[in-house]
Amino acid sequence: MVLLGTGAAHADSSVVGWGLNRFGAGEVPDATANAVQVAAGFDHGLALRSDGTVLAWGSNLDGEREVPANLGPVVAVYGGDWVSLALSIDGSVRVWGASPSNPIRSIPASATNIASLDIGYASHVVALRGDGTVVAWGANFANQLQVPENLTQVVQVSAGYGYSMALRADGEVVTWGDRIPQPMPAATNVVAVEAGWTDAYLLQADGQVLAWGPSGMNSASEPLDVADAVAISAAFQSVTVLRRNGTVILWPQPTEPALAPPSNLQGVTAVSSHGHASFAMVGNPSVNAPKIEVQTTPEGQTLGFLAERGRTYRIEYTDQLGAEHWRIASIRAGVGEPIRWRIGEASGFELYRVVVY
Predict the structure, then answer these.
(1) Among residues 9, 31, 166, 182, which is most buried (max CB within 10 A)?
(2) The model scores a pTM over 0.70
(3) Is residue 27 classed as helix, strand or coil in its secondary structure?
């Protein structure tokens, strides 16, 4: 049985930060307790609280910490190179920080009905619309905004330095931009893509992570030596990996000890890295959402249910080993619009996709 929203309160969550901490990004405010999402910028952090408000800390070189007073209800936050973005309940995007001349501030009229997005290095945005199509804006020095024609059925996007990536519902990985690392390794059952500074990463449903790029960290495109990864997030020239047991590793091992996650970090449910900052959600955020029961199908299949607009859902299911897992999903959809949700074949608690179709 899969439960989406139990309606009950759960143990409070907390946010743990690490990194170079040049501007206090690692000094996470107490007010982030029971946050439902955390996002890393280059040297700052953002937290979305359960009431839809946003908290920022760390660097403020371009005003990235100055959350607009009239932001309104927010369903997701994103950090970049001294810039912050928020996705509103109506599918619109707000930006603050970045210099006045930064093209990332010029949100196109086509950026509507946005379901999720990612911010690349050197200021470009790739956004996924609710209908599975993609829009991009910002810097275009390497054609990273040239979204391929007829790109549809996308379930996730990621932005790097001069390139962009998209994961389609059938598992196909699509890339564009002149700086995309080459060659991309052969992969199967891809459930997540991550674009870093010069290296790119794929998470497979079997828990393996593939990395490739010019940094020398994995020139042979061999899998990272774990088989239980459930989420990945690209830092500057490394990847933060969340494992099924709730622990976190950084790969490769950093030369700066401060970039490594705390050795005693456990109970992690989500990670976010960008630039010199990384954050982890620890514990279970409190969620008050209606209970919806859907019939289970073989893993790797798509499940559907009707979502309420702007509602935060708690997704629970049992994996192949009988362990119970959950994840928070902020789903932005119109009233009565169907949502699809995919679980990977060797599912951990983060191997799913939530998109409007």
Answers:
(1) 166
(2) yes
(3) coil
